[in-house]
Amino acid sequence: MDRQPIRLHVNGQDFDIQVAPRKLLSDALREDCRLTGTHVGCEHGVCGACTVLVDGRATRSCLTFAVQMQGHEIATVESVAVDGHLSVLQQALHEEHGLQCGFCTPGIVMTFEAFLREQPDPSDEQIREVLSGNLCRCTGYHNIVAAVRKAARRLREGEGVDHVAP
């Protein structure tokens, strides 16, 4: 297949790359933009490890063609920590032991960075519902729920808001 030039705007930076029309956004981010924080697990949109933000919305990058993303704002997990400081959510995940091997973590972080903007005071039920789109084989989810609850509280109280992802 012929490759075509596209420009992706990722984490505030433009990437001019050449891709086959069927190249997935997850692969373009990892291979062409060299942003390897986006993980690829199931390649079917089930596990959530590849979740990025597109125009502020959580999106499965393994189900999205890179050529579809011209003109959109893409944010990956690399954009979340600012000047070496973890985001409120990342810090809460660390404190509550909401991660173990870390493979699912980028997708969970991006999913909840978007969710907490829309729902600043979620119930545990709402957190679990959103979390159901992310598979984790290590933690058992309880600590992730506690971390999201803690991050939501901190964001509502204005703690660490200078370190919130774009």
Helix fraction bin: 25-40%
- The CATH homologous superfamily of the largest domain corresponds to Beta-grasp domain
Which stretches are low in confidence, meaning pLDDT under 50 for 5 or more residues running? none
Describe the sheet with the most strands: 5 strands, mixed
Q: Return the string of H and E elements.
A: EEHEEEHHHH
Name a few traits of the molecule:
globular; 2 domains; Ubiquitin-like (UB roll); DNA polymerase, domain 1; alpha+beta; 5 helices; 166 residues; 32% helix; five-stranded mixed β-sheet
What does this structure look like?
The protein contains 5 helices and 5 strands, in the order ββαβββαααα. With 166 residues, it is α+β, with helices and mostly antiparallel strands. The protein has helices spanning 25-32, 88-95, 105-118, 124-131, 142-156; strands spanning 4-10, 13-19, 51-54, 57-60, 73-75. The protein has 2 domains: 4-79, Roll (Ubiquitin-like (UB roll)), CATH 3.10.20; 88-159, [2Fe-2S]-binding domain (DNA polymerase, domain 1, Orthogonal Bundle). Strand 3 and strand 4 form a beta hairpin. Strands 2-1-5-3-4 form a 5-stranded mixed sheet, with helices on both faces.
